[in-house]
Design brief:
The protein is built from 18 helices and 22 strands. With about 500 residues, the protein is an alpha/beta fold. It folds into 3 domains: about 190 residues, Rossmann fold; about 180 residues, Rossmann fold, CATH 3.40.50; about 70 residues, no CATH class. The strands form 5 sheets. Strands 6-9-10-3-11-12 form a 6-stranded mixed sheet, sandwiched between helices. Helix 12 packs parallel to helix 14. The longest helix has 16 residues. The C terminus is likely disordered.
């Protein structure tokens, strides 16, 4: 084996990110590394590339033990990485990016002519003959930038290439161009680790795959010897439990909102969605399938580049979150620490934020009114805090999540988007939030619930929309909602693809 990992363990405060991890990479193969959030993929890659020091275990390359202390050490050993966000310098030329740090010199000065010649030679085997290496890298498409990043990584390392979500910003044609490059590198003998949430791409490109879950090695197999349903079970675990549905085939109230053909290039394919008053619409799919991308388009965080939104009064123009708030939408995002709370502000200030934005900053909410509002929701949601003036960053995760919910409830939205509202909180807070979702819909509010937990979706949702590869592929209603149907919808491929496989 080219690269072996044995009994690798890495612990952070309160978390064992890798637990006796096992992994092998052969020369001349594309090996897919799969797992949901928190599975350990990123930690494994960071241990391989010298970002993190392992606590225990052994890594060998070409049969020799290695312990890279930095990304530079890893490159010197032969391990290069290309990330989803191209980490090159867009304001420099292609040639300068390819040779940065090792530019050819003549009489002590950088030789521009030799630098261009070296760059052109480096790109010759990547199908980029049309690229002018004297142009700034930022003037080219993301696909070209990715291939340039690969060419640089291979030139610097040349044994192991790690591709971390390289197709996340590419369309189908650009993805196939990139895959042609990857296959040519595999045929030249490189070992390639391919991280992707797109299962179709995993089955198209990889020779073998490894699934991680909760920091542990779950399975390694030849890609041709497995199928999507088994793979998804490995990724999600076998702890899925059929949950009693809160609603039995309830259709909701009057039609509230209609979204038709909404889409954003390279983020989410066109989808239709009707929202009725007082219903919970669940959004199911693997990480990266298009769940959050759907929410971002609905709320204007990512303005749709096609499609329409209407309500009972006609067309809605929602191209910014402020417009969405004005239309009566709320959005509690997945990453509450980055996109939800303002950690240094008080509970009171955090709860008042959305209502203040809706009123406009020219009409500030008096502090006394903010306090009455905060005290009311601290009581209603049982937010555990010594005072409304306490900084939100000092609260537990579950109480931070309740503050984010209180912020939107204070605005009394008609349509509330909840992206992973129970992730990372304790069991008690988890149950309280699910109970709150039921109470809100009983009062007529409409909720879009995004969750990785199928039992949570089945318990809370009136209908579930399944998202796969950035497409809305199935809708389950009432008695149709069960684990097997969700997993089969995530796993099932189109007829055209089946015919070619």
């Amino acid at each position: 084996m080219l690269l072996t990992v044995r009994d690798l363990t890495k612990t952070f405060p309160g978390t064992r990110a890798l637990d006796n991890m096992q992994f092998d990479l052969a020369a001349g193969e594309v090996h897919a590394l799969l797992g949901e959030n928190g599975a350990g993929k990123s930690t494994l890659i960071k241990c391989l590339t010298g970002v993190h020091a392992r606590d225990s275990g052994r890594i060998t390359l070409d049969g020799q033990p290695i312990s890279p202390g930095s990304t530079h050490d890893a490159q010197e050993l032969g391990i290069g990485t290309v990330y989803q966000e191209v980490n090159l310098l867009p304001n420099l030329t292609v040639a300068e990016n390819l040779t940065f740090g090792r530019q050819p010199t003549r009489f002590g000065l950088v030789s521009s002519r030799r630098m261009r010649a070296d760059a052109e030679e480096m790109l010759a085997g990547y199908g980029l003959d049309q690229v002018n290496v004297g142009r700034e890298l930022g003037t080219y498409s993301v696909a070209v930038q990715q291939i340039v990043a690969i060419a640089r990584a291979v030139a610097l390392s040349g044994k192991v290439l790690i591709l971390d979500e390289p197709t996340a910003s590419l369309d189908a044609r650009e993805t196939e161009t990139l895959f042609a490059v990857v296959r040519s590198l595999r045929d030249r003998g490189l070992g390639i680790i391919f991280i992707s949430h797109f299962l179709d791409q995993v089955f198209s490109l990889s020779d073998r795959l490894t699934v991680l879950r909760n920091g542990q090695h779950i399975v390694t197999t030849n890609t041709a010897d497995t199928n999507r349903v088994d793979l998804i079970h490995h990724m999600l675990g076998h702890e899925l439990v059929e949950a009693e549905q809160r609603h039995v085939a309830r259709t909701g109230g009057a039609e509230l909102l209609t979204f038709k053909g909404l889409a954003h290039r390279n983020r989410i394919e066109p989808f239709d969605l009707k929202v009725r008053a007082g219903e919970v619409i669940g959004l199911a799919g693997l990480l990266g399938a298009g769940r959050t991308e759907t929410a971002d388009v609905l709320f204007g965080r990512t303005p749709a580049d096609q499609g329409t939104a209407t309500d009972e009064n006609g067309k809605l123009d929602i191209t910014t979150p402020r417009m969405a708030i004005a239309a009566g939408f709320g959005y509690a995002p997945e990453d509450r620490k980055t996109d939800g709370i303002v950690a240094d502000l008080s509970v009171r200030e955090n709860i008042a934020l959305a209502l203040q934005a809706r009123r406009g900053w020219a009409r500030p909410i008096p502090q006394a009114e903010q306090k009455r509002l905060a005290d009311d929701y601290i009581r209603k949601l049982d937010i555990r805090t010594s005072s409304a003036e306490k900084a939100v960053g000092d609260l537990s995760g579950g109480n931070q999540q309740k503050v984010v919910l209180a912020r939107w409830l204070a605005m009394n939205p008609r349509f509330l988007i909840l992206d992973e509202p129970t992730r990372g909180i304790d069991v008690g807070a988890h149950a309280e939030i699910l109970r709150l979702i039921g109470d809100l819909t009983d009062q007529g509010m409409s909720i879009l619930l995004i969750s990785s937990e199928f039992d949570e979706l089945m318990a809370a949702s009136d209908r579930i929309i399944v998202v796969r590869d950035r497409k809305h592929v199935s809708e389950l209603v009432g008695a149709e909602i069960d684990t097997d149907r969700i997993i089969n919808a995530i796993a099932t491929r189109g007829d055209a693809e089946r015919a070619t496989s």
